Amino acid sequence: MRLSPPPLSLYIHFPWCVRKCPYCDFNSHPVQGDLPEQQYVEALLLDLTQDLEWIEKERVRYPGPLHSLFLGGGTPSLFSPESIDRLLSGIRALLPWPPDIEITLEANPSTVESNKFRAFRDLGINRLSLGVQSFQEPKLKALGRIHSAREAEAAIETAKEAGFTNLNVDLMFGLPRQSLNDALYDVITALRHAPTHISFYQLTLEPNTIFAKYPPSLPDEDTVWEIGQTGQEKLELAGFQRYEISAYAQEGYQCQHNLNYWRFGDYLGLGAGAHGKLTDAQRGRIWRYFKIRHPGHYLQKAKTPERIGGRVLIAERERPLEFLLNALRLKEGFSPGQFECCTGLPFSLVEPVLDALLAENLLYQQNGRIACTPLGWNFLDSVLERFIGL
Ligand SMILES: C[S@@+](CC[C@H](N)C(=O)[O-])C[C@H]1O[C@@H](n2cnc3c(N)ncnc32)[C@H](O)[C@@H]1O
Ligand code: SF4
Fold it and tell me: What is the atom index within ligand 2 of the atom nearest the CA of 73?
């Protein structure tokens, strides 16, 4: 079976936040003193240069044209528009992109950051992702967020006024002491502001976070299930399609960058702790690579000629699970042909397990594609476990 090179996206990680939220296990660190904006932009450009040198030297794949760009974090919106401008211009000189490409920036809805939205839009950033989480004051406090409910609502409007027609709102549910009505208030308030995309995540207690050490009082399983179900119904009634397990979009507003991850596309990852994936179709190999995680160490390394990170090959036996844990998150699922092009392995390898899951109504098959049923999505971890050690 031959691998084919999938589309290539670019992810850029910004590892700083005003404060660390007690539930967050992302590579994000509280800002201490001034942000090293200029130094970090230079390091990111060096990081990209090193990636491109490696790709070219070893002829891993043809890099361009890019499929999407995503500036994520942490809190990229803490950076000034001038720094983001220098970064985007620098990247563009190394790796051009087509004019209509999706460029997302993650932002927190504080007033300071909202004031920069228009300048970010003027730089060509055409998708904004706002980390609202909740529109209720006590919930925002319990989550350790720095913005108020009023600021969250105002930020959405400011983003629209700034010209962001492609606008995501992140909401979390299953929050400390959250009732069904609390959660529905959040969904309805988000809908009232008419964004084009809503990510609706269940709060998870991640290891090595403050919440894991001091667990808050969370709603019971039945309430969380009811919130998930009712939230989904409200979103779908308002015209949002659930195209991924936690992602809802109006027609034509699915996140192209995330779709590329879920379709097992390739991506370059720049910045502290960023990951990348590259397909070397000619040699039948798939690389995963990673960058130094700690921002201070990352910046230090960028002053030396050494590489900023390392890389490993994805072993053939790991590929089916890696592919499926992305593809089964999608409503569209995947086709046997896609499985073979993306993994370089015969579909027959996973067929017996897929057949068993189809018989158990955890998966369904339609128009030559296989996807999770609603039941399968509810038990996605158990579905995926069945592919371990194939
Ligand atoms: C890592 S944040 C980056 C964006 C921005 N810093 C923010 O917090 O809004 C991206 C999103 O991940 C989600 N998230 C982070 N930690 C989570 C957790 N433990 N459980 C569920 N969702 C989480 C939140 O909805 C958040 O908006
Ligand atoms: S603001 Fe976002 S990235 Fe930063 S700590 Fe909170 S959840 Fe994590």
Answer: 3
CATH 3.20.20.70 intervals, the chain: 8-260
Architecture of domain 8-260: Alpha-Beta Barrel (3.20)
**CA distance linking residue 167 with residue 160, whole number of Å:** 8
Domain 317-390 maps to which CATH number in 3.20.20.30, 3.10.350.10, 1.10.10.10, 3.40.1000.20?
1.10.10.10
Distance 117 CA to ligand 2 centre (A): 19
129: CA distance to ligand 2 center in Å?
Answer: 13
Torsion 158-163-164-166 (CA) sign: positive
Model confidence, pTM? 0.97
168 lines ligand 1 (CB under 6 A): no
Spacing, Cα 108 to ligand 2 middle (Å): 9
3-state class (DSSP) for residue 308: coil
* Residue nearest to ligand 1 atom 17, measured at CA: 24
Nearest CA to ligand 1 atom 23: 203
Tens-digit pLDDT profile for residues 58-116: 888 887 789 999 999 999 999 999 999 999 999 999 999 999 999 999 999 987 788 99
Token pair in block for residue 296: 């201070």
Are 363 and 383 in contact by the 8 Å Cβ rule? The answer is: yes
Q: Report residues of the chain scoring pLDDT below 50.
A: none
HEC-encoded secondary structure of 20-66: CCCCCCCCCEECCCCCCHHHHHHHHHHHHHHHHHHHHHCCCCCCCCC
The per-residue pLDDT for 308 is 79
Q: SS3 of 340, please?
A: helix
Is 133 close to ligand 1, i.e. is its CB under 6 Å away?
yes
Q: What is the pLDDT of residues 134-143, one digit of tens each?
A: 999 999 999 9
Tell which residue, 271, 238, 240, 244, has the closest CA to residue 259: 244
Q: Where in the chain is the domain with CATH 1.10.10.10?
A: 317-390
Name the residue with the closest Cα to ligand 2, atom 3. Answer: 74
Query: Is 170 within 8 Å of 134 (Cβ atoms)?
Result: no
Q: State which of 201, 204, 208, 218 you would mutate to test the pocket of ligand 1, scoring each by most atoms of that ligand within 8 A of its C-beta.
A: 201
Measured distance CA(277)–CA(307) in Å, rounded: 17
Tell me the torsion sign for CA atoms 89, 90, 96, 98. Answer: negative
